[in-house]
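Sample 3 of the quickstart, ligand magnesium ion:
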Amino acid sequence: KVESVDSLLKSSGREGEEVRVQGWIRTRRDSKAGLSFLAVHDGSCFDPIQVVAENRLHNYQSEVQRLTTGCAVDIIGTVKPSEGKGQSIELLASEVKVVGWVEDPDTYPMSPKRHTMEHLREHAHLRVRTNVSGAVARVRNCIAQAIHRFYHENGFLYVHTPILTASDCEGAGEMFRVSTLDMENLPRTDKGAIDYSKDFFGEESYLTVSGQLNVESYCLAMSKVYTFGPTFRAENSNTTRHLAEFWMVEPEVAFADLADVADLSEQMLKYVFKAVLEERADDMAFFAQRIDKEAISRLENIVDNDFARINYSEAIEILEKCKEKFEFPVSWGIDLASEHERYLAEKHFKKPVIVMNYPKDIKAFYMRMNDDGKTVAAMDVLAPGIGEIIGGAQREERLEKLDERMDEMEVPKEHLDWYRDLRRYGTVPHAGFGLGFDRIVSYVTGMGNIRDVIPFPRTPKNIAF
Ligand code: 4AD
Ligand code: MG
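Result:
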């Protein structure tokens, strides 16, 4: 039976037992005494297991001494207390079978030296073999599992919303068009232009920017729901926080208002951060040592303290009064730029802050109009070091008000009659938000660039892998 390196390193009282592990060589070191130390990893935890291979092995000279980083091995050995520092046990190998060699180790792109993030990005198909990308992969998985657990424990139903859609939820015109048209023989309008209205077997179709509109429909029957899937934005932005394809977690709660989902967002983030600290202490120690020395303390602070909460108008006052020199001038009505968001979270509050009730003119059509007629019940959760990680709102549940907003913003009603139906039949106040999943992974690990926390980033010029 094959054992994972993780379960082997975590267990105790195993001395003398024979075990089998399968994995890849991280490093090989030969000692003068006629033995080699192999560090073998299998992805199950940060640390590799140290394997001691002696020259009495039949293939010691012919194979063991030719092992290089990346070679795949299948090992049988006896568990022994380790004399080396940093590990409590090691394996004394009775058999080292080489399953896959690394051709031409000198040009192997994942050689054991330190690589730049750019180099790793250029080899996105191999980079998960490195310490850093392996640690990111485990933390990313831990966060995803914790999110599902959080919603499950709180009675939410997980809904699968569609990827192909006709509607632009955010109304920002950032949709990728999806076409089934014959490119050689494109249909034309009377004026000779390409007739895209025939895209999807006769309808316009796009990749979704958000699952929200569909998840609202489930909310208004199942009460507490969430969707968690890929979303797409065709924005040509080259920043460290934007992807063209990213994952979003979108809960939606019936009979709830903005304050309810602000609470929910805070509870969820604390639950997730706690899970990471408990379950991935090994990877987090690595991030704290090599990537961002505050990686652990930042999460601990968040778990232990309340988030700040302010209205948009107060946020503007703070920004107007502060001494900071901003690139974009501040006045009531502006959409907060990244520099403003970061100032609020990093310098003013020094912790996550939930900004609520934004001017209606900078927000989406579905947000609930406040009594002042100027602001809508929107919220953004801003975190130090990254800015917006969550965007949400109470939804406009009153049909007349929704229609007014749709007209005002020229949202095509014909595509959203089904959405308006939700207000015609048994409407209730409801609210929800979207968590940028990749942004949260970047926040937790301290990895500065969102491209380094998603396995195969999709950004302008990144489609090869
Ligand atoms: O603020 P956004 O656009 O909100 C919505 O899409 C709502 N329909 C969500 C809802 O209420 N159900 O996006 C939500 C979050 C942002 O706060 C951000 O963290 C992330 O999604 N996000 C991106 N992440 C990576 N790359 C991009 N291009 C992103 N755009 C938004
Ligand atoms: Mg937003």
